[in-house]
């Protein structure tokens, strides 16, 4: 790894090489399996690579020296771990879009819609939608398994069993927590009518933490730091930075899910409103709205048939309640908390500067 600014290129090269290796296993079985490789390449060819960047910065923060001077095994391990996180993320997105019945991802068809369209174009027998859903489940499972394989390849190259165990433990915990968070998310979409009003905000925040915050920022940092041989003090500082920033990241995502520009986000306007996401934004709005407006919000939220005018009306209702301003304040406070965790922390100055810049990137993004 010659230079940090090439991280994204190196991760992409690792992903492409890995997929080529797996294609050599799949294609001798049947040429029909080329769709799995093709769709995998498509879903892994872009994105912001935030998780890969945080993984690398966690490693950079604790290594003793410049990245280019590290042993080859350590450099191979961090690139493979960063790439494994991207495969894990792709698997999560494939399953998440299926759960949410989302038609698009990054401005293009979601995986189940791609498989559905292939069924229709090929004039196959049976139900195209059912085929698309089944195939997407399998693609997500395949990517999930491959993320494990790619991580293990990197940890084997590391040549340090203790560091490898620590990185594997962080990855395994992340995988369990994000699945738990995803379940809590879909549970809340159904269970909210019987929730005590006082519980709603706490439940929404718990979903933020476990579905997104930990696996988007905190866990990648911890995995990278483990590969670099972090001390307990270094790991505590990085986690102290990662969790609040991960919360800020997801709160921004919640705002974009309601107010984001479709031309920028690649998702329909107000998509979270149609999907019925019971986010912290919605919890904050409900607390502030009069009973009649709260009742209307509850009635419309989660209706997949919401039209443009209804979306605009709900957007105005939420904004006028003051909930947007509250979330913006929460984001700013969490970013400040994250930056404060690195003040005087025993981490490399170059990595601290990069993490400071990433705090701005993830909390102010428009997609």
TrEMBL record:
GO terms for biological process: isoprenoid biosynthetic process. InterPro entries: Isoprenoid_synthase_dom_sf (IPR008949), Polyprenyl_synt (IPR000092), Polyprenyl_synt_CS (IPR033749). Keywords: Magnesium, Metal-binding, Transferase. The keyword Mitochondrion does not apply. It comes from the Bacteria. Pfam families: polyprenyl_synt. GO terms for molecular function: metal ion binding; prenyltransferase activity. Its cofactor is Mg(2+). The keyword DNA repair does not apply. Belongs to the FPP/GGPP synthase family. This is Polyprenyl synthetase family protein. It comes from Agromyces archimandritae. The lineage of its organism: Bacteria, Bacillati, Actinomycetota, Actinomycetes, Micrococcales.
């Amino acid at each position: 790894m010659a230079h940090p600014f090439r991280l994204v290129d190196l991760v992409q090269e690792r992903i492409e090489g890995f997929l080529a290796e797996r294609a050599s296993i799949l294609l001798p079985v049947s040429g029909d399996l080329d769709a799995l490789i093709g769709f995998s390449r498509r879903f892994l060819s872009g994105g912001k690579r935030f998780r890969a960047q945080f993984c690398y910065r966690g490693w950079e923060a604790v290594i003793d020296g410049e990245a280019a001077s590290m042993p080859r095994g350590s450099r191979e391990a961090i690139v493979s771990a960063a790439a494994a996180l991207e495969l894990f993320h792709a698997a999560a997105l494939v399953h998440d879009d299926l759960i949410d019945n989302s038609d698009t991802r990054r401005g293009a068809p979601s995986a189940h819609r791609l498989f559905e369209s292939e069924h229709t174009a090929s004039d196959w027998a049976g139900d195209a939608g059912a085929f698309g859903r089944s195939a997407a489940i399998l693609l997500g499972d395949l990517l999930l398994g491959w993320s494990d394989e790619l991580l293990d390849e990197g940890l084997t190259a590391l040549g340090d069993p203790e560091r490898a165990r620590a990185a594997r433990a962080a990855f395994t915990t992340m995988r369990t927590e994000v699945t738990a968070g995803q379940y809590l998310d879909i549970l809340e979409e159904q269970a909210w009518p019987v929730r005590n009003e006082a519980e709603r905000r706490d439940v929404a925040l718990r979903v933020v933490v476990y579905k997104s915050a930990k696996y988007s920022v905190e866990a990648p940092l911890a995995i990278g730091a483990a590969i670099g041989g972090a001390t307990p003090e270094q790991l505590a500082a990085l986690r102290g930075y990662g969790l609040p920033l991960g919360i800020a990241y997801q709160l921004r995502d919640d705002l974009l899910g309601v107010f984001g520009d479709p031309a920028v986000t690649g998702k329909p306007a107000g998509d979270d409103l149609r999907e019925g996401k019971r986010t912290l934004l919605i919890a904050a709005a409900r607390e502030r709205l009069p009973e009649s407006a709260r009742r209307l919000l509850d009635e419309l939220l989660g209706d997949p048939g919401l039209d443009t005018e209804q979306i605009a009306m709900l957007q105005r209702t939420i904004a006028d309640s003051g909930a947007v301003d509250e979330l913006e304040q929460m984001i700013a406070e969490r970013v400040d908390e994250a930056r404060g965790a690195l003040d005087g922390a025993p981490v490399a100055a170059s990595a601290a500067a990069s993490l400071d810049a990433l705090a701005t990137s993830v909390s102010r993004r428009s997609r």
